[in-house]
Amino acid sequence: MRKEVPMFITILAALMIVFGKYFFLGDQVKVLNNMDKYFNISGTFALLIGLISLTMVHGMNIRRRKEGWYNSVVLLVVMYGYLLLGLIEGNKGTTFRWIYNNAFLNLDATMFSLLAFYIASAAYRAFRIRSWEATVLLIAAFWVMLGNIPFGEALGPWVVDGKDWIMRIPNTAAMRAIQIGAYVGAFAVAMRIILGIERAHMGGRS
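Given the sequence above, the corresponding structure tokens read:
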């Protein structure tokens, strides 16, 4: 029963989504709207599980005085303090919104700004000219970057027109090909899950 029940729930949910998406009657009875409510409930429980897991892991770090355990103290204090503040004030509270706008958003922007260094490193590895494909990639990337800065616009409209053509024609065609491949792969995985072939989500081997 440990595997049969989750598999039955997975198949039932998948069939309900297909029924609500591709059948007229399913659209009339608003199956997907009701499913969205259950998805939100599941997401809430997943968030609760994450909260419990974080508490257990960092609580163990504090008890064992592992290296950097004081960071675990800060994390738990901030996490539960902000949770308690949200329960008291609500998500529209003045203090709650002030912390979100002046602390969380700035920290979030800082984390994402660090991605620029990883992108620069990946771009350096990708743009090294080792083949004619890499040469084409380098020229196209340089042209697009040049067309997005004032210096490129000052060189003449042909730079911007070339950038727009690259983004509109080759880039769109490549993105559509990638999306088609991703959709086919997602459909194959979905069918494997519905048919019970793929069982990794239940803790078993696929």
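Residues 1-66 form one domain. Try to locate this feature in the token string yourself.
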